[in-house]
Each structure stands twice: as C-alpha cells, then as structure tokens.
Amino acid sequence: MGSLVNLKDLSVEEIIEILDIAEEFMAGKRVDLSDKLVANLFFEPSTRTRYSFEAAESRLGCQVLSFAKEASSMLKGESLYDTVMTFSQYVDAIIIRHDQDNFYEDLVGNIPVPIINGGDGCGNHPTQSLLDLLTIRQEFGKFEGLKILIVGDIVHSRVAHTNIEVMRRLGMDVFLSAPPALQENQEEFVDFDEMISEVDIVMLLRVQFERHREKLNISQEEYHKLYGLTVERYEKMQDHAIIMHPAPVNRGLEIDDSLVECEKSRIFKQMKNGMFIRMAVLYRALTRGGLK
After folding, report:
1. pLDDT (tens digit, 9 = 90+) per residue, 2-22?
2. Which CATH architecture has domain 126-268?
3. Which DSSP symbol is given to 255?
4. 91 by DSSP, 3-state: which?
C-alpha cells in the first residue's frame, strides 16, 4: 500500500530506491500531486519532522490537513484507531508522530490509506534513519565497511533503535557508547575515547530528559565531559570523519557549541536531506511506485 512504519519491513533494495528517489528530487525533479490530500497527526512536539513533512508536501503540491489533539474528539474519549480511521475517509495518506511504541500495530492492514510513521515513542523513526543514510551515502558513496559510533541516550532513542538495525543490515560496523543508565542490556558498549579515532562517523544523540523515569546520577557538566563531543575529542577524529546528530541539539551537553556548525558537522545537512527523503516517502506512498 505504500505505508512506512518500520524499516525492518523494507528490503535493502527498497531502501536504496527511496534514497535514489530523494536524490532525484534534490536534483530538481518535479511532480504534481495537487490531487492528493495528506493528514499530519502529531501527538508530540516536533520541529524538524513535522515541518520537513509540511515542506515536502508543499513541494509535491499536496493539500494538507493538520491535526490538533486539543481541538479533536480525542478529548471526548475517542481512540487513536477511530481518529485515524476518520481521517482515512478524507485523505490519501496519514503521517503520525506518537509517544506510544508501535502505535501503528492496529492501524496498518486496517486503515485503508498509507500510514507513515513520523516517530513512535522510543521505538522507530524510519524517515530519520533514511535521511541519515542519505547523508552518509552522499559523504562516502557506500555503506559497506563504514564504522559509526553512536553516543548518548541509546535506551530512549527511536533514532538509535532504527539506525542500529538498518546500518548493520547495510554492512556498517556500529559501535555504541552511553552512560550505564542509558544503555540497552542486549548491546555491547565501548569507550568513547578509545573508539573516536577509529570511526568514520560520530553520531551524538539527544539526552531525552522528558522520557527519563529517574534522573541521571551525573550532572550535565559530567555528562558533557564523559559522553559529549568536546573539542579535545573532536581533535582525535580522523580527517575524513563526520559528525551527525538527529537534533534538537542540547548545545554544550551532547556536543560543544563551537562544533555544531564546524567543518566536520553534517547536522544541518541532515535536516535539509530530511525534506527530500520525506518527499520520496510521500511520493512512494501516494503513487505506489518509483519516479517515472
């Protein structure tokens, strides 16, 4: 149907096809989807994901319905399923950001229009991962054999959970570093300082304080010293290595303020790539095929 809720559902070939379509849009390919109506249902605050989807919809010519929970029947007790089913009677595709892991399980297969996951709880963020992959491919021209170090709030990060799986599937070596309280039990963790000079990509993750049930047992200053990208660590990176971050960035915590827009940083390039990836994902959902 064109739904995209989890990258595990896509083959490597399908993932590469989406990246290729995004590149065509980036190169100036234009399509007219002015006959399509898309609904954006965001149940969590969002800047990059929400507005890059809106920019993508606008550039494709789509008409858009934006949802406001506080003005909806959900305040009267309507379920997520019934809300989404209602929108499906009016639109051609629905983008959903929700704080519940795997919110889409009861929707896909029942809702008669494509569902695109704009991020679910601590679970998945497929379009973020795709824009990360696009950024990496633009930089290195490949995935096989690249080494990436993902640092920070692993346990709460839907970005990390999606990236770890798909990057390994694409042949990348994925290394993780995090405070003990933010680690996943099933993963192995490495020392940040020992690995930073060995990898091609350093990806910092936002510390998601809003999802923490308990406060970290280290101060923000200690976190930055132990797990932040400091100037000292930056100087140990390989000449060709790049910095990535899904944002929003806690400057001075996950990364030194002076490094957010430094020569090696691709943070804002990721954001721009997000619009083209979301154009490609929407095009796939709305046309059930590749570019013609």
Report:
1. 899 999 999 999 999 999 999
2. 3-Layer(aba) Sandwich (3.40)
3. B
4. coil
CA 8 to chain centre: 14
Q: Where are the alpha helices (DSSP H) in the chain?
A: 12-26, 48-60, 80-88, 126-140, 158-169, 192-195, 220-227, 231-234, 267-287
Same fold, 7-124+272-287 and 126-268: yes
For residue 96, report the phi and psi dihedrals to the nearest 5 degrees.
-130, 130
- Fold designation for 7-124+272-287: Rossmann fold (3.40.50)
Residue with tokens 């995935």: 143
Measure the CA–CA gap between 166 and 169, rounded to whole angstroms.
5
CB 266 within 8 A of CB 244: yes
User: CB neighbours of 13 closer than 8 A, spacing ≥ 6?
Assistant: none
pLDDT digits (tens, 9 = 90+) for 26-69: 999 999 999 999 999 999 989 999 999 999 999 999 999 988 77
Which residue shows structure tokens 């559902």?
9
